Request: fold
Amino acid sequence: MVKKIEDNLVIVLVGEAGQGIKSIESILSNLLKRSGYNYFSTSEVMSRVRGGANSTEIRVSSKPIAGFIDRIDILIPLHKDGIDHLKKRITKDTIVIGEKDKINYEDIIDVQFTEIAKEIGNAIYSNTVAAGLICGLLKVELKLCKDFIVEYFSDKSEEIQNKNRDAIIKGHKVGSNLSEIKITIEKSDDVKKHLLMTGAEAVSLGALAGGCNYICGYPMSPATSVFENMASHSKNFDIIVEQVEDEVGVINMALGAWYAGARAMTTTSGGGVALMSEGISLCGMIESPLVLHLAQRPGPATGLPTRTEQGDLNLVLHAGHGDFPRIILAPGTLEEGFTLTQKAFKFADKYQVPVFILTDQFFVDSRYNTPVFDTTDFNVDKHIVKTKKDYKRFSFTKTGISPRGIPSYGSGNVCVDSDEHDESGHITENFDIRTKMVNKRLGKFELIKDDIIPPKLIGSDNYKTLILCWGSTFNIVTQAIDELENKEIAVLHFSWIFPLSKNIDKYLTKASNLIVVENNSSGQFAQLLELSTGHSIQNRILKYNGLPFSVEEVKTEIQKFI
Reply:
């Protein structure tokens, strides 16, 4: 019996850590996108260097795609435990391709990846054989495969390049001859012109566009990928990249960099921000710009360090002691990852406040194709003044924003202090000055409101049910709504999280049914909305097992509330 797959293909690769699952995904992403296929992939990995069971989902479609789904059309287990690991997602329609003598599954298409690789010279090439098989199934041009694999391994020896080329050729031949599977997915020449990147790469490029020239951090998954990307960019751009001994040092070094005139960013996860709390308070007191990227993972404590969650909104909302203004952004698409990170530097510099960029493991590690970003309005605005001898760092102004000087640029003394201070920056315990300084800092909230990016409404204006979501759930929720084909449902997505826009009340009051979708256990954004607007959202779709939402489960849960 021939299995026909049209328009939308889901392939899942599963194997042990160290078996090269990520290498297969990296090879396929480039080859399929260069062939004109819309592409999406995301991974779930265990927190270990070897062993366990890791999987990567790859979606190929005739239409743009960027959401995780449960369905598996083709499963390629490279390890005996792979079937058990994914058994909840395997159905009678799932095609399993693997080594029959190693994989305990009754209905399997036998492909001896290891034996084919050994014929080439080493079992290590089995992952390239698997990549070739998928290319053969999807009729990717063989010459493109051969040329790309040599390019991909260009930093390796000629022997390794040649053997990987042989491996992809053999895999391609096997895939082309699998008559049991017929795949018909349209290609597009426009896709070939698209960008292909992960969320981490989008945030890193946004930082470059924002003028970032200093980044420091301490390795902490899943934020490390942004740190590594910025390190790679330092080869071509004037960026200082510094790995610090801990997150306490990280936050203080970032503030020191801004004090000296750099445009600095730090990247970390929830546990890192917990250690940075005092430094974030210092940022508030000295009115320093700061851009802090937080890639969320499940907590508390170490939690599930390689999994995903939207559990740190309350953390950045309340990080630091005392009251001071801040901005919180949460991109939902690759384009927003790029544009919002660029704007984060603009807002931090303009208002002299910390700006938090909230992503998560699902966002930073997912990869898909997207049209080229519009950069026509990307100016790097710097708000640094040349100081005079009578310069006062915290002078009272009509706007509440004091002119920011830096040491040695002018003749003035740039004095900052963690204690309450007067206009010149010197410590004071004068109660009237204290009150004026607090009001000065908090007054920036009114100014920030001029730059607030309103939430995005997707769907009919004549909605009765409004689905509220924020950050990385955007693509999953919008695809679920598209598939429901109900014109009485719309989605309101928030990428500017705090301070919230005043005009959101018009969206909420119009709906007779409000539903919030969040990747956490308590509905942190729903709580923020209630505090800000008075609207209590009781219908909550929450997930907190460490995995992202799937399109199917969002559809199912929404239908329960309508």
